[in-house]
């Protein structure tokens, strides 16, 4: 039952809507007679981050005590707080995924891409550990922003960066799973 929730979800959601509505005209000049004080970006970010922490899903032991309904409620609260956080960071509403609350902006795409290429550049790519999360990340973007992904191969770009980086150092990365360097590390 949602009544058992620590968070009064409906009230929290209503407050959240107020925040979103207040910020839907964010960036527009506000009429001087508007009586409400303007929420600072920082205050909003802090409030949204506090809500994220409060609604965060507990570990598996605690989670087992929650009903599926409660878990859905928590996820909804998390997404709402995530949306508020995106808004406070200046992400356009059209660029916010309404289910997860995550940013789908071009800069969010570039940041995700960069983090993967950077990981592969330094550590190489492990099919066993990396393939699944990379596949998940790519699927998330393919579903929402296929135009960004078109012709953009993160793995190939990462492996090129990996080869160039370690060539520059003059030795292999030492990763036993690395397709490029496994042989050299085995021959040491
Ligand atoms: Zn390597």
What descriptors fit this protein?
188 residues; mainly alpha; 2 domains; 0% strand; disordered N terminus; binds zinc ion
**Which residues form runs of ≥5 with pLDDT under 50?**
1-35
What is the count of structural domains?
A: 2
Computed CA radius of gyration, to the nearest angstrom: 22 Å
Q: Which class of secondary structure composition applies to the elements? A: mainly alpha
| Residue-averaged pLDDT | 80
What is the tally of beta strands? 0
**Inertia-based shape:** globular
In oligomeric terms, what are we looking at?
Answer: single chain
Give the N-terminus to C-terminus distance in angstroms: 61 Å
Helices and strands, in order, run as HHHHHHHHH
Strand content: under 5%
The hetero compounds bound to this protein are: zinc ion
Helix content: 55-70%
Give me the number of helical elements: 9
Largest sheet: none
Structure description:
By secondary structure, this protein is mainly alpha-helical. It folds into 2 domains: 4-95, no CATH class; 106-186, no CATH class. Helix content is 62%, strand content 0%. It contains 9 helices and no strands. It has helices at residues 9-24, 41-55, 60-63, 68-88, 106-123, 127-144, 146-149, 154-169, 182-186. Helix 5 packs across helix 8. The longest helix is centred in the middle third of the chain and has 21 residues, at 68-88. The protein is globular, with a radius of gyration of 22 Å. It starts with 8 loop residues before the first helix and ends with a helix. Mean pLDDT is 80; it is low at 1-35. It binds zinc ion. Zinc ion is lined by residues 124, 162, 166, 172-173, 175, 178, 180-181.
């Amino acid at each position: 039952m949602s009544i058992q929730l620590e968070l009064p979800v409906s009230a929290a959601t209503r407050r959240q809507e107020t925040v979103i509505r207040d910020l839907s005209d964010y960036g527009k000049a506000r009429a001087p007679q508007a009586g409400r004080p303007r929420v600072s970006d920082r205050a909003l970010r802090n409030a949204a981050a506090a809500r994220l922490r409060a609604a965060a899903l507990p570990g598996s032991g605690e989670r087992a005590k929650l009903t599926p309904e409660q878990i859905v409620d928590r996820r909804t609260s998390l997404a709402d707080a995530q949306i508020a956080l995106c808004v406070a960071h200046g992400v356009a509403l059209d660029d916010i995924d309404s289910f997860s609350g995550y940013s789908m902006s071009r800069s969010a795409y570039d940041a995700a891409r960069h983090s993967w290429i950077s990981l592969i550049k330094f550590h190489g790519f492990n099919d066993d550990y990396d393939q699944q999360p990379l596949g998940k990340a790519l699927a998330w973007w393919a579903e929402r922003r296929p135009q960004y992904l078109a012709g953009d191969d993160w793995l190939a770009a990462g492996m090129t960066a990996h080869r160039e980086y370690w060539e520059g150092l003059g030795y292999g990365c030492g990763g036993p799973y690395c397709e490029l360097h496994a042989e050299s590390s085995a021959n040491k």
